[in-house]
């Protein structure tokens, strides 16, 4: 079945799903929220037509003192999609919604993110679980709450690439394997274009929401207070959203800098780990070489004395080479940094435009030059 | 949307057991867009022979019970015949339990139907939802009707009910529906989503892609330019004495124009330069960090393709390179700290 189908090329999200995800993610912000997506696959376009949130398993309070459990607590929601209890919840829910004619095929899952910090092991493992266990044609939708609060909706769809899945399955992340497979951090995810689709009813609903059908020409207001009190000044029109016109630079940049610093920290740790590994490896290699030389000399003397030779491959039992640390973490980290810098770029391009506009506005003479 | 005006009447109460005092205070219903979207979606997915579909509304109730916020909805299967109605109560209960597991803060607040008509069946279902035990009792159940008839406006109405005393046998299928005011409310977070959805409203395919930051900015600016055009057209036509003038309008515009800040050009210049430098430096550094990390990772894994020598030799080489990459990262960090201090 799989080879007959074209690979997934795009994701079409229903307006309902967009609203549901926004609701769930902003409700639980800043904790990560996750949920399941259902939909249909139509000729390479995955149509996501409904969604439901995953229940969060509450951690018992006494475990807060326990350091390990404390670290695990915020990840409870993030790990939810692959938790066993939720698999049952999901299949139950899908069984239920099938009865009311909603598309009951698993189409993936969604998660919330804060400033694009979604590239981590949890997302990888969840998506791996989905693509492997549930259905190959699934996506992860990432809704960035803090970026959406700045005015423009941030909703992106990701899949793990086939190459990465292959490597992840066998945990092939040491340098030798990476050289062989030529897997780079750009190859972890495949991003799919996201399209928002409205049903006819929603289209007509939004049209009504925007212009409340004026019955005849509007009368001019009698006084200033009447104007301010009228429905026009507090209109509920959806567009434009002027949030993205505000010139609010510092919080965003500071947050991004913090995240970048964290990433550098992680990178350094990884590099140090690797260096440590290499030092240990070098030492062990040295020992082995010494041992081999000794054995060869011994055998040479034994040969002259006509004694039976000692086996030369005994070193494999005597010495143990250290295991190479996985490069996966540093790969993810690099991918994460790339995500941050793209985000900064996109922000900067809009901000510089706004700043020049403000300057031109306040100093009209300057722009004429 | 229907612009109805409402008169709050103390609603009649049913038989009250001792100890509980149902309130007769006015009730206001707030609907969040995702609930309406759910209802519309369900209406699209109804069976061909069904005229209307029903479902359960969930949400929160304010402490005094004076405001009900409808947050989400799910569909419940039902079938209507000439003289009987069948609602899948088992389904409703299971779905409610599943929903509450994921949204522990939401409670059952009522039900919806996708036709404006109120009939005996409506009363029957309403009595179930507002009943004791599984229903919303002692709070009133909200009944929301969203008409989805083709070719007509979508009409939303909210009701609560009161029991009408006819005879004991008929009490179950009779109820007096009292219309209550409702409003559509969406939060800050929903705004960007709704904007994206609204983008698709004038497109024939009814679909749109997610905008980038710059595109969104462009749109907003175009929108503002359009508004300024409209206002200046109006002002011009007033000056040409084509449209009647309005003092209030003039005052309003004057107030808006007075909002423009008055600042010294030197101050503007200084602030502008400070900020633009910050912005550009962060962008530059972010990209440098990215390049450095990528380089360091590449070098760590690409050693063999360059040297092709002995395993031990190349590991050492890689080690050195790695160190260089690491140092680069550290250097970046120091540089990074400087502008941040400057800004603080």
Counted by DSSP, the helix tally of chain B is 9
CATH architecture call of the largest domain in chain A: 3-Layer(aba) Sandwich
Rg of chain B, please? 32 Å
| CATH domain fold name of the largest domain in chain B | Cytidine Deaminase, domain 2
Can you write the helix and strand succession of chain B as a string? EHEEEEHEHEEEEHEHHHHH
CATH class of the largest domain in chain A: Alpha Beta
**Overall tally of domains of chain B:** 3
Quote the beta fraction of chain A.
5-15%
List SSEs of chain A in N-to-C order: EHEEHHHEHEHEHHEEHHHHHH
What form of chain A results from the Cα inertia axes?
elongated
Secondary structure tally: strands of chain A: 8
Spatial sequence of strands, sheet with the most strands of chain B: 9-8-7-6-2-3-1-10
Strand count, sense and barrel status of the largest sheet of chain B are: 8 strands, mixed
- Could you tell me the mean pLDDT of chain B? 75
Subcellular location (chain A): Cytoplasm
Subunit structure (chain A): Component of the eukaryotic translation initiation factor 3 (eIF-3) complex.
Protein name (chain A): Eukaryotic translation initiation factor 3 subunit H
Family (chain A): Belongs to the eIF-3 subunit H family.
Write the topology of this structure.
The complex is a heterodimer of chains A (369) and B (344).
Chain A: E1 10-14, H1 15-28, E2 34-42, E3 45-53, H2 67-72, H3 75-78, H4 84-98, E4 105-113, H5 121-134, E5 139-144, H6 145-148, E6 155-160, H7 162-169, H8 175-181, E7 189-192, E8 194-197, H9 200-210, H10 224-229, H11 250-304, H12 315-318, H13 328-362, H14 364-368
Parallel strand pairs in A: 1-3, 1-8, 4-5
Antiparallel strand pairs in A: 2-3, 2-4, 5-6, 6-7
Chain B: E1 28-31, H1 33-44, E2 54-61, E3 67-76, E4 78-80, E5 85-87, H2 89-102, E6 107-113, H3 120-129, E7 142-147, E8 155-163, E9 175-180, E10 182-184, H4 188-199, E11 207-209, H5 213-239, H6 247-258, H7 265-301, H8 303-306, H9 311-343
Parallel strand pairs in B: 1-3, 1-10, 6-7
Antiparallel strand pairs in B: 2-3, 2-6, 4-5, 7-8, 8-9
Helix pairs in contact in B: 7-9
InterPro entries (chain A): eIF3h, eIF3h_C, JAMM/MPN+_dom, JAMM_MPN+_peptidase_M67A, MPN
Subunit structure (chain A): Component of the eukaryotic translation initiation factor 3 (eIF-3) complex.
Keywords (chain A): Cytoplasm, Initiation factor, Protein biosynthesis
């Amino acid at each position: 079945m799989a080879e007959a189908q074209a690979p997934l090329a795009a994701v079409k999200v229903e307006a309902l799903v967009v609203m549901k995800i926004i609701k769930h993610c902003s409700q639980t912000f800043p904790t990560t929220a996750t949920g399941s997506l259902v939909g249909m696959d139509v000729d390479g376009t995955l149509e996501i037509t409904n969604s439901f949130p995953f229940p969060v398993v509450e951690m018992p309070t006494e475990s807060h003192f326990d350091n390990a459990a404390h670290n695990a607590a915020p990840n409870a929601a993030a790990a939810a999609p692959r938790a066993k209890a939720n698999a049952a919840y999901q299949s139950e829910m899908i069984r239920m919604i099938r009865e009311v004619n909603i598309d009951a095929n698993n189409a993936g899952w969604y998660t919330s993110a804060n400033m694009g910090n979604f590239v981590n092991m949890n997302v990888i493992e969840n998506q791996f679980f989905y693509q492997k266990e549930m259905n190959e044609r699934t996506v992860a939708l990432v809704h960035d709450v803090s970026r959406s609060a700045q005015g423009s909706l941030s909703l992106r769809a990701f899949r793990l690439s086939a190459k990465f899945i292959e490597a992840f399955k066998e945990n092939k992340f040491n340098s030798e394997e990476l050289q062989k497979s030529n897997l780079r951090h750009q190859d972890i995810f495949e991003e799919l274009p996201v399209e928002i689709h409205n049903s006819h009813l929603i289209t007509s609903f939004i049209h009504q929401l925007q212009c409340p059908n004026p019955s005849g020409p509007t009368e001019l207001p009698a006084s200033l207070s009447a104007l301010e009190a009228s429905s026009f000044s507090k209109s509920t029109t959806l567009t434009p959203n002027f949030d993205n016109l505000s010139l609010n630079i510092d919080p965003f940049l500071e947050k991004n800098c913090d995240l970048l610093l964290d990433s550098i920290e992680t990178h350094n740790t990884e590099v140090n780990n690797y260096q440590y590994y290499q030092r240990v490896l070098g030492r062990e290699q040295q020992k082995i070489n010494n041992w081999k030389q000794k054995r060869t000399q011994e055998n040479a003397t034994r040969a002259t004395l006509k004694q039976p030779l000692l086996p030369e491959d005994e070193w494999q039992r005597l010495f143990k080479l250290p295991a190479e640390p996985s490069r996966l973490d540093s790969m993810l980290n690099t991918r994460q940094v790339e995500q941050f810098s793209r985000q900064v770029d996109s922000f900067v391009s809009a901000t510089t435009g706004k700043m020049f506009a403000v300057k031109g506005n306040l100093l009209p003479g300057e722009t004429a030059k | 949307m229907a612009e109805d005006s409402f008169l709050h009447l103390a609603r009649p109460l049913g038989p009250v057991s001792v100890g509980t005092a149902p309130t007769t205070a006015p009730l206001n219903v707030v609907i969040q867009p995702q609930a309406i979207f759910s209802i519309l979606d369900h209406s699209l997915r109804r069976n061909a022979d069904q005229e209307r579909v029903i479902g359960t509304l969930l949400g929160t109730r304010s402490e005094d019970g004076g405001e009900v916020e409808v947050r989400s909805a799910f569909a419940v299967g039902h079938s209507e015949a000439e003289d009987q109605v069948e609602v899948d109560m088992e389904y409703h209960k299971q779905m409610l339990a599943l929903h509450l597991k994921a949204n522990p803060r939401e409670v059952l607040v009522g039900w919806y139907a996708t036709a404006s008509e109120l009939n005996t069946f409506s009363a029957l279902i309403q009595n179930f939802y507002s009943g004791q035990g599984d229903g919303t009792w002692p709070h009133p159940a909200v009944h929301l009707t969203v008409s989805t008839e083709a070719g007509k406006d979508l009409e939303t109405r909210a009701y609560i009910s009161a029991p009408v005393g006819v005879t004991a046998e008929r009490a179950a299928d009779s109820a007096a529906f009292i219309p209550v005011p409702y409003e559509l409310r969406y939060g800050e977070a929903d705004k960007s989503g709704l904007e994206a959805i609204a983008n698709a409203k004038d497109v024939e395919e009814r679909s749109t892609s997610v905008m980038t930051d710059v595109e969104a900015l462009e749109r907003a600016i175009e929108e503002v330019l359009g508004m300024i055009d409209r206002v200046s057209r109006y002002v011009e036509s007033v000056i040409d004495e084509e449209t009647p003038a309005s003092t209030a309008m003039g005052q309003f515009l004057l107030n808006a124009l007075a909002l423009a800040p008055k600042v010294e050009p030197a101050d503007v210049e200084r602030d502008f330069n400070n900020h633009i430098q910050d912005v550009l430096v962060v962008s530059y550094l972010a990209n440098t960090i990215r390049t450095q990390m990528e380089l360091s990772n590449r070098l760590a894994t690409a050693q063999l393709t360059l040297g092709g020598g002995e395993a031990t030799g190349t590991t050492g080489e890689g080690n050195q390179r790695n160190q260089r990459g690491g140092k680069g990262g550290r250097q970046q960090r120091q540089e990074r700290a400087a502008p941040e201090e400057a800004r603080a």
